[in-house]
Every structure is written in structure tokens, then in C-alpha cells.
Fold:
Amino acid sequence: QERLSQVQSHLASSEVDIPRGKESILRKSPDDIVVTCALRTPITRGGKGGFKDTAAPDLLVHTFKSLISSSGIDPSLVEDISVGNVLAPGSGATEFRAAALVAGFPETTALKSLNRQCSSGLQACVDIANAIRCGMIDIGVGAGVESMSSQYGPGAVSEFSELLDGHREAKNCKVPMGVLSEQMASDRKITREAQDAFAARSYQRAEAAQKAGKFRNEIVPMKVKWVDPKTDEEKELVVDKDDGIRSGMSVEGLAKIKAAFKEGGSIHAGNASQVSDGAAAVLLMKRSTAEKLGQKIVGKFVCSSVVGVKPLLMGIGPWKAIPVALEKAGIGKEEVDLWEINEAFASQCVWCVKELGLDESKVNPNGGAIAFGHPLGCTGARQVSTLFNELGRTGQKVGVTSMCVGTGMGMAAVWVKE
Structure:
């Protein structure tokens, strides 16, 4: 009996020593999957902005070169690269492999492209993190890129076969996102006023952040050739900031914009994400590897989640994915310092934030895709650089990135700033 009491005492004291909640994910381990560099190009307006004449692989070359120079990593040590892309034929697999070679990665660095719609950039980062965690590789890059200027349009989705069209839920996968989001807003009673208020706040936050220089540390300027649409004159310019951010946006101004998908509807160009161009990249490895190489650790990847929802309810994806990611991390929503939730449409963001009970001041504090754009394959990787930049600037630790995903999915990931 005395021995049993001793064992129970030891077990009880051991349980006290086991970190839980936020403390558990703040704890450092040699096996942590860490980020040593996360950066992005500016995000520019599709068809009008600074990158309208720049091909997606060229954006990627510049992003890769910047990642190598900023991190100081020996490119021959990078074993695999994963690139998220939505619109390019074949998700750009051939061109992106070529882009990696041009950027300075040797032929020994493998590359794949992938497409999980709007979460492609995040999925690319997660795939690399998981490959490192399971021992397949030691060092890798998760990236995302999109040129919506050159590849956005009806050709992005092929015609459904008779078999697919004959299945009701499957057929819903091709309903345009604007149309289904309008229906969701109506069904869930998300008013236009609430959407416009959210959108105005996104613009105002982004404008203030840009003026304060808050994005400078995550953006790598790029020199490009740009054709003036008025004169057809080719010019050389340096793109060094997001050019979709509009100044002076207000609820009153947004209220004057005509609904885009339904007469008397609530969704319009001012409260939905912009069509945009851009690229982003994230360098990942184990903490032990980073320390051995002298790489500065920006933060770490904790875990991720991916879920499915009804195709017509695509917008609720974050609402379903975020709790799953938090449960895997062993933390509650109150322990998250910052949320980067993609603003595909104000309607779905308003609903998700409300249903999850999140503190709005912690959600996209520097604006989101409504204000500066959503280059589809890029966004998930872009959010990582934006999240770590703001966590570092404000001295906070725990962040979550998330987005809804076309055809009815959601994805989320938990990150910790070093």
C-alpha cells in the first residue's frame, strides 16, 4: 500500500509538470518544425496593377531568389519545394520547376505543384512541414503563386461530364462562388450593412498599416516591365507595395456600389476579395537543423486541419476547420493572439467570426483580401509572412491562419512566433 501511494504521488507530480494549453505549444523542442524565412511580393491588381504583365513563374523566380538571399540558406540543402497554384494548366508544374532552377536551386532540389483551390499556398507549406516531420526531407520550401491577370476566367474550370452533372451535390461544385455566397448571405441573414462594415474596416486597417510601413518587412520589391494601357508604351518600374489598397473607403461609399450577382443582393466588388497577382514563400526545417546551420528562427508550425463542407456552403470552411486545428494543438480560442482569416467574401467572414465568437480586433488587424487582394494559390503562404510579421511587431506569440476553399472545404493552421 505504501509503494502504491509513492507511485501515485510520482504520477501526480509528473502530470503537474506536463505543459498544457498555450504553455505546451510555446515549449521548444529540437524536433519543432520551424520557419526561418517567410516573405512575399507585393500583391497587385489583376489586369491593372504592377504585375499585370509579369508571368507567374517570373514572380516565383524573384520570390525564390529573395528567400535564398534573405535567409542565407545554401540552396543545395533544400531538398523539396511545394508550390500552390490554382489557375495555371497543370498547376504550373513544369514552369515552376524551371523557375526554381533559374532562381538558383540546383537540379537536386525537387519541386511539385499542387492545387487545393484557395488553400493551395497553405497546403504547400503543410506538405513540406509534414515531409520534414516524418523524416522524408530535412529542409524544404512551401510557396504559392498566382497570376490572375493572365489566367483568371471561365477557362479555369472545365466542363462537367454527364456523370458529374447527374449528381446533385457534385454539380454544386461548379456553382460560381459569388452566386453561392449571395445565397448563403441570404439564408444566414447576413445583411449588406454588416458586410459593408466589415469591408470598410478591412480597407481602413490596410490603408493605415501601409501608411505606417507595417508590411515592409514581409514584402520584397520587384523590378518589372509594365505596358501602359493608354499609350502601349513599355516601362520599367519597381513594384514595392500592395497597389489594391484604396484610401478613404467607408461604409457610405460601399453602400453606393451595385450588387454583382443578384438584383438587390448584398455582395459586390467592394465587399469581396480582389482579383490579384502575387507570390510568397516559406522556408522550413527542424529546430535542430536551423540551430546547426545558424538560421534565425522566425517561428514554428504547430499543426493544421483540413475539412469538408457542403459545396454550396464553401464559405463556412474556417468555422469548421479552426476548432479542429485548435483541438489538435491543445489550445482554446482565447489563447490565440492573432487570426489571419482570408476574406474571400465579407459575408462568410462576418458569419465565421460571429459563430466562432472571435474577438474582431484580433482578426486581420492590418486588413485582408478585400483590401489588398487574393491571388488564389499565393494567399495561404502569404498569410504566414503577414502573421509572423504582425506577431513579431506586437510582441505576441500564437497565431492561426485559415481560409474557406472552393467546392466546399476549409483549412486552418496554428503557428507560434519565436
Observations:
- The longest strand covers residues 276-286.
- Residues 130 and 300 are 13 Å apart (CA to CA).
